[in-house]
Amino acid sequence: MDTPTDTLKWDPVLTIHKWDRTEDYEAGLEPDRVEDYHGNILLTAGITRLLNLLTGAGGTAFNSTNCRIGVGNSTTAAAVGQTDLQGASKYFKLVSGAPNVSGNVVTFTAAFGSGVANFAWEEWGIDNGTADGATVTAPLLNRKVEAMGTKASGSTWTVTATITVS
Fold it and tell me: How far is it, in rounded angstroms, from Cα 8 to Cα 10?
């Protein structure tokens, strides 16, 4: 007789709303493009943080003051032992407001304005940082490598990471 097993499915989707002109974003106009990118991997350090929070062993929650979405320009394959985005160019942006949890879905959103992250976006992840910048703050929860386009000065891209756990 087969023994039933439980599995956990991690299903992230990154949605990027791209405005070629920041003025259009600020005016509330529709984005020039909306693109979805599916999947990424949980990293060992991120899994450890999640388990520590689950068991009350301590750690900082991924919340409105301690959570950022980061993008970088590396095409190095994602591996569970990584602790940072791999790109020579990278930028982490604080999430806008508190992450939203609804049932088994959590959503994080950040806006990358005209003067930041102007390079080829080849990777993304979520970390536990408290301020915008290029330095990772441990732990890096997850990482995905995929060509998402090149953000230019004068443009604004908003990023929404939606993670479904089932």
Answer: 7
Quickly count helices (H) and strands (E) in the chain. Answer: 2, 10
CA distance 96 to 108: 8
DSSP 133: B
CA separation for the pair 94, 111 (Å, rounded): 8
Give the side-chain half-sphere CA count within 13 A for 5: 5
pLDDT digits (tens, 9 = 90+) for 47-105: 999 999 999 999 999 999 999 999 999 999 999 999 999 999 999 999 998 899 999 99
Record the tokens describing residue 25, joined without a space. 């974003």
Nearest-10 Cα torsion for 149, 146, 90, 113: 40
Please enumerate in sequence order all residues whose Cβ is within 8 A of that of 50, keeping only pairs 6 or more positions apart, or say none: 42, 141
